[in-house]
């Protein structure tokens, strides 16, 4: 298996020339796309709630990554954390549910950032919800987010009774988006709903 599929780091553009180690050769399921120097700048998030898992803190390196991935439309960056995402989700028995984008917003962004993270990690997922507002939570104050009207609706013909879900989003800030989605699934009969995000703001 290849150690790298790109010749230069997707984040800093430096050559991917770190020496091989047993860890990099045996523990990574995918070829590396960023250098070790960039990887070390991402800070793991220390989870205290089993129902709400996040991988990394929202530090300056992550802020820069998210800006280029979501707002500069750099879809290749979906591959950066694919190993870590797959490692946390691949053995889960729950249904993986992706937080959806509004169709107009997806057209503007050119791709769904949550879907692409899961596709890059080779994780099967479903989208039982649809977004009914184009308002961005990122543009709101904390108080405005906490008082947000309904964000999602259940898609037609969804049989959720007694099913368990893990809802996946890119970032958890106040929890408003995930809590709205979680509430709808539980109201529709889901047995349990936990959440998973790449980032905790």
Automatic annotation (TrEMBL):
Domain Phosphoribosyltransferase, chain residue ranges per copy: 132-200
InterPro entries: ComF/GntX_DNA_util-trans, PRTase-like, PRTase_dom
Family: Belongs to the ComF/GntX family.
Protein name: Competence protein ComFC
Taxonomic source organism: Ureibacillus chungkukjangi
């Amino acid at each position: 298996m290849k150690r790298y599929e790109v010749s230069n780091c997707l984040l800093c553009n430096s050559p991917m020339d770190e020496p091989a180690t047993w860890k990099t050769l045996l523990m990574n399921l995918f070829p590396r796309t960023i250098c070790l120097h960039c990887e070390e700048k991402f800070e793991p998030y220390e989870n205290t709630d089993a129902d709400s898992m996040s991988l990394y803190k929202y530090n300056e390196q992550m802020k820069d990554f998210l800006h280029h991935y979501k707002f500069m439309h750099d879809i290749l960056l979906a591959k950066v954390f694919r190993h870590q995402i797959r490692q946390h989700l691949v053995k889960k028995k729950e249904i993986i549910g992706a937080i959806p984008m509004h169709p107009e917003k997806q057209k503007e962004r050119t791709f769904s950032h949550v879907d692409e993270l899961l596709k890059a990690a080779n994780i099967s997922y479903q989208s039982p919800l649809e977004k009914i507002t184009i308002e961005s939570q990122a543009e709101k104050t904390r108080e405005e987010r906490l008082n947000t009207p309904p964000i999602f609706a259940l898609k037609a013909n969804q049989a959720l009774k007694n099913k368990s879900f893990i809802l996946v989003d890119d970032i958890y800030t106040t929890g408003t988006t995930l809590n709205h989605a979680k509430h709808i699934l539980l109201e529709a009969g889901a047995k349990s709903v936990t959440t998973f995000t790449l980032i905790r703001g």
